[in-house]
């Protein structure tokens, strides 16, 4: 596609990848005449299963702890990717409780009742 004159953006949209990934692949092709991934990148299936198993055993583990437990030099992004593929995305805790319409109405009533108060009333 690139040799046919397509832009990086057009190629990225066509193959459903990021522009950066397409650009990197194209640069590697023009530099090395190959598209093969470098050796040592990524994780094996066995390591992938160990990552998922660790997350299932203890859902409070963080990426660096999982990395240390599996004993392989996997980058944190690889660990996150494997967990997403296993449908184990992290969930951020809710910081505050959401207000229901009833709560909002009651809070507004409380504020209206005290809107004219002065410093001594408070």
TrEMBL record:
Q: Mind listing the GO biological process terms from this record? A: DNA integration; DNA transposition
The organism encoding this protein is: Araneus ventricosus (Orbweaver spider)
What is the name listed in the Swiss-Prot or TrEMBL entry for this protein?
Transposase Tc1-like domain-containing protein
Named from the GO MF annotations, one term is: DNA binding
Q: Where is the Transposase Tc1-like domain?
A: 48-113
Q: Domain of life, per the record?
A: Eukaryota
């Amino acid at each position: 596609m690139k040799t046919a004159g397509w832009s990086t953006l057009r190629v990225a949209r066509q193959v459903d990848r990021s522009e950066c990934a397409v650009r990197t692949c194209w640069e590697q092709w023009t530099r090395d005449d190959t598209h093969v991934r470098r050796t040592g990148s990524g994780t094996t299936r066995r390591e992938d299963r160990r990552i998922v198993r660790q997350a299932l055993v203890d859902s409070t583990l963080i990426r660096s702890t999982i990395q240390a437990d599996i004993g392989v030099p996997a980058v944190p992004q690889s660990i996150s990717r494997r967990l997403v593929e296993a449908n184990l995305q992290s969930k951020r805790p809710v910081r505050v409780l959401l207000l229901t319409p009833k709560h909002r109405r009651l809070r507004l009533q409380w504020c209206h009742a005290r809107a004219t108060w002065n410093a001594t009333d408070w």
